[in-house]
Amino acid sequence: MIAISPLIEVNGPPLQRGRQYGEQAKQRIHRGADHYIEQLRRADFDWPEVRAAVDEYLPIIRGFDAAYVEEMQGIAEGAGIEFAAIVLLNARTEILQIARRRAHLDDTFDDDPDGCTGVIALPSACAQGRLLHAQNWDWKAQCAETTVVLKVRRDDGPDLLTFTEAGALARCGFNAAGIAITANYLECERDYVELGVPLALIRRKVLEQQHFALAIRAVQATRKSASNNIMLSHAQGIGLDFECAPNAAFVVHAQDGLIVHANHWQSPAALARLTDTGIASTPDSLFRDLRVRELLTPHTGQLSAAHLKGALFDDFASPWSVCRPPRVTHASNLSATVAMIVMEPALGLMEVAMLPGLNRSFESYRLESEFVPTHTPVPWEGQ
Prior knowledge:
The protein is α+β, with helices and mostly antiparallel strands and 383 residues long. The protein folds into two domains: 7-102, Penicillin Amidohydrolase, domain 1, CATH 1.10.439; 117-366, Penicillin V Acylase, Chain A (4-Layer Sandwich), CATH 3.60.60. Helix content is 32%, strand content 23%. The strands form two sheets. An eight-stranded mixed beta sheet has the order 1-4-5-6-7-8-9-10. Strand 13 (334-344) and strand 14 (349-354) form a beta hairpin. It is globular. The model has no long low-confidence stretch (mean pLDDT 94).
């Protein structure tokens, strides 16, 4: 039987809620940290090197939001684990790549990238007139045992609900104001020239915003270490896709009420300015987004969560499919679609199926929504 992701509920100031998080997710945090520490060790990137990498990132994290350092310290205390391990979990994409590049390692070190196929269906495309936002998260199959759904009760902004790796501050999710986020792997030649804010913390910053404009700013204006595709939506009916290089972001808009994105660059502006260096490691990206769009388009105007699930369960070209069953990688580990996440922010609903290549049952998680829909304004008839 495939275990569900446990719900972790926290509140209070950063240090306090961090301790609550660490105490409740202790076993999964240790398991996740051990996994990445072992992977880094295989690259001759031992614990002193991890600590050194953490020390490089800490000033950047403090400059972005010092409360995140405090919250991570609380998580470490609650879980009974070294603080550097929690920072590693929040910057694992960046530190894994730094280790790989410093050791000049090929794909036998790192498994398939942190892939993903994401979709936003705008209200005009949906039967109930409510926006839907969903994603398949492709990564290491063993990470199905290290995920949680984190609910943060906040006194200084909207509450938030995020599906994430245990110990991390955020991955994908939505907040009580109706703002939702998912993200996909991208790669270009500008990556890791300079250090930037870890992606997990940018995602958390998005989920802390009351206003959609400030969520956009968190994505658009924050320097990153590497490329990433970030999909933002608002329950009122807005969806935007940001193809982010470390020092630039390119917007992809909906077509026929849909945004679908996998792991290759789509924006003509981006493709004119940079080189997509990720296709060699994610060649299936070139058909995954096409498959999802082709499966959804005939139902435009009548789309439901069931339609999005059906498209994300697609097994064309398996095991390099939209929904990836566990398969052995170059490094003899298992790569898989770790989870399918389907969100309806206006209803405060998140549904998660773990290892959907093997399992089609969903667990539901809810967040009390503060979102109040507004009516389309009537054109002003001035004198």
